[in-house]
Amino acid sequence: MVLKAIGFFFICLWSADFLSGFFHWMEDTYCLENYPLIGSFICEPNIEHHVDPQLMVRTGTFISRNILQWGLCAGMFGILWCIGLGNPFTFLTLLLTSFGNEVHRWNHMSKTGPFVTFMKDSGLIQMQRQHSMHHKQPHNQYYCVLTSQVNSVLERIKFWRRLEWAIEITTGITPKRENRRDSPSQIKQARAAAMEKAK
Ligand SMILES: [Zn+2]
Ligand SMILES: [Zn+2]
Prior knowledge:
The protein has one domain. It is built from eleven helices and no strands. By secondary structure, the protein is mostly helical. The chain starts with a helix and ends with a helix. The chain is globular, with a radius of gyration of 18 Å. Helix 1 crosses helix 5 and helix 4 runs antiparallel to helix 5. One zinc ion binds next to loops.
C-alpha cells in the first residue's frame, strides 16, 4: 500500500515534470515578444528570465510568482473534469505542475532552507547544476524544472530536437530562437551597441 502510494506519487511527479518541460520548451522555442496576447503575458517574462535569471529571486511574492500557473493548471483540470478525465492522477499531476515555478526559483537562490537544500542536493527535486545547464546559450536543453530524472532521459534520447524536427517536417514551423532578444546573435548586437554608446 505504502509502496503503491510512493510509486503513484513519483509517476505524477515525473508527469508533472514532463509537462513543465513541455511548456517551457514551447515558450523558449516558438514564443516571440511581439505575438498578440501571449507575447507580453508569457514570452516577455520568459525572455527576461534568460537575460536576468536572478530577477525571479529579487521580485514578486509567493502568490504573484505562482498565480498564473495555479490558474492555468486549475483551468486545465476543469477541462479534463468536464471530459471525464478528472481523477487522482490528473489532479496530483497538475497540482505538482502548478508549483514548477517555485521549485525553479529555488534553483536560482544562492541560499535555501535546509529541507529544500537537501531535496536539491539529493536530486529529489531538480539539482541546481542541472538547471544551470539550461541557462547556457542557446537555452535549448534541460527544460524540465521539477526533477533531474526526466531531463536526463529526454536529453539522452534528444527528445526536444527530434520533436522540433517532426514539427518542422509536418507543419513547416521552425524554432524561433534566433529571432528572440535572448539569442546569442542579438545579445552580441546589444552588447556591441552598448559599447558603441559608451565610447
Ligand atoms: Zn528557458
Ligand atoms: Zn532558470
